[in-house]
Write a structure and sequence with these properties.
The protein is α/β, with parallel strands linked by helices and 291 residues long. The protein has ten helices and ten strands. The N and C termini lie far apart (53 Å). Bound molecules: thiamine diphosphate, iron/sulfur cluster and magnesium ion.
Length: 291
């Protein structure tokens, strides 16, 4: 492989499984561009993908890829990062994967602050299983499992992340490539847990939250020059006021210390590179503990 990482190094030959027009294509393109811009080599990156249409993204990026059990991307990703802190680790999956079955992990990942980027592809629906309402489906949304309209209040992922202590919180739209690429690069560059929710329309099963609908209602924080990204309370206010119909970086705590930097005795080099050999003195210590 050439020293400079190009798009050809990041792409795979696998034929796409997604429906034509799926928002996930835009997420894939932005992620590939961001990885090339950041010059991350395939062997330096791990994608931990969830079950869902969204989770297929791992098959289309040339890096290490683990396709895990539904809802379990985050504990796996945090384990990978703790074992080898030299890697760029991304957890990726859908709104069902992250905010239904995986919600407990999401909250704890936010408060732990392990240096992992969590990218969710939020289409407000269960795409893979053919159109049931998801935790982010809007109240009143008419879908297969709620033909009269959903009567549940939606989960608000950005507010959930902010309330749970996440140190980087943003939202992108799969159609807004320039902004999305910048957000992904910023999220990966953040030292600590970064949560990027990407609005990624499902053209097959979600006839409510369409591209046209989002283009009408979404606004970008970039248009607001006075907005500051270092104020968690302001970020929460903005997420609430807009009902999360906002894109951009909402909040970043640049001073937060990552989990792995606080673990006593956790040496600077990745665990995977540490010697398994014990010195005579260390061996004696182990024996003394067992006596
Ligand atoms: C433990 C478990 N429960 C349920 C399922 C069935 N299942 C597969 S994908 C999915 C939800 C998919 O929705 P989402 O995570 O939003 O991904 P999308 O397909 O919309 O990208 C469900 C419930 C499963 N595979 N495993
Ligand atoms: S069902 Fe929806 S989410 Fe799944 S590939 Fe098709 S458009 Fe995308
Ligand atoms: Mg979904």
């Amino acid at each position: 492989m050439a020293e400079t990482i190009t798009l050809a190094d990041i792409k795979t030959d696998e034929k796409s499984w997604w429906c034509p027009g799926c928002g996930d294509f835009g997420v894939l393109a932005a992620l590939q561009k961001a990885v090339v811009d950041l010059q991350i080599a395939p062997h330096q990156m791990v994608m931990v993908a969830g079950i869902g249409c969204s989770g297929k993204i791992g098959n289309y990026i040339n890096s290490y890829n683990i396709h895990v059990v539904h809802g379990r991307t985050l504990p796996t990703a945090m384990g990978v990062k703790l074992a080898n802190r030299g890697l760029t680790v991304l957890a990726v999956g859908g709104d069902g994967d992250g905010f239904a079955i995986g919600m407990g992990h999401f909250i704890h990942a936010c408060r732990r602050n392990v240096d992992v980027t969590y990218l969710t592809m939020d289409n407000h629906i269960y795409g893979l299983t053919k159109g049931q309402n998801s935790p982010t489906s809007d109240r009143g949304a008419k879908v297969k499992t709620a033909p009269e309209g959903s009567i549940e209040a939606p989960v608000r992922p950005l507010q959930m992340a902010l309330a749970s202590g996440a140190t980087w919180v943003g939202q992108g739209f799969s159609s807004n490539q320039a902004e999305l690429v910048e957000l992904i690069k910023s999220a990966i560059g953040h030292r600590g847990f970064s949560f990027l929710n990407v609005i990624s329309p499902c053209v097959t099963y979600n006839k409510v939250n369409t591209y046209a609908w989002y283009k009408e209602v979404l606004h970008t924080l970039k248009a607001d020059a006075a907005y500051r990204t270092d104020d968690r309370q302001a970020a929460m206010g903005r997420a609430m006021e807009t009902e999360e119909l906002v894109t951009g970086l909402l909040f970043e705590d640049r001073d937060a210390v990552a989990y792995e930097d606080q673990v006593a005795g956790y040496r600077d080099e990745p665990l995977t590179e540490q010697s398994l050999d014990l010195s005579a003195a260390e061996w004696e210590d182990v024996l003394a503990e067992l006596r």
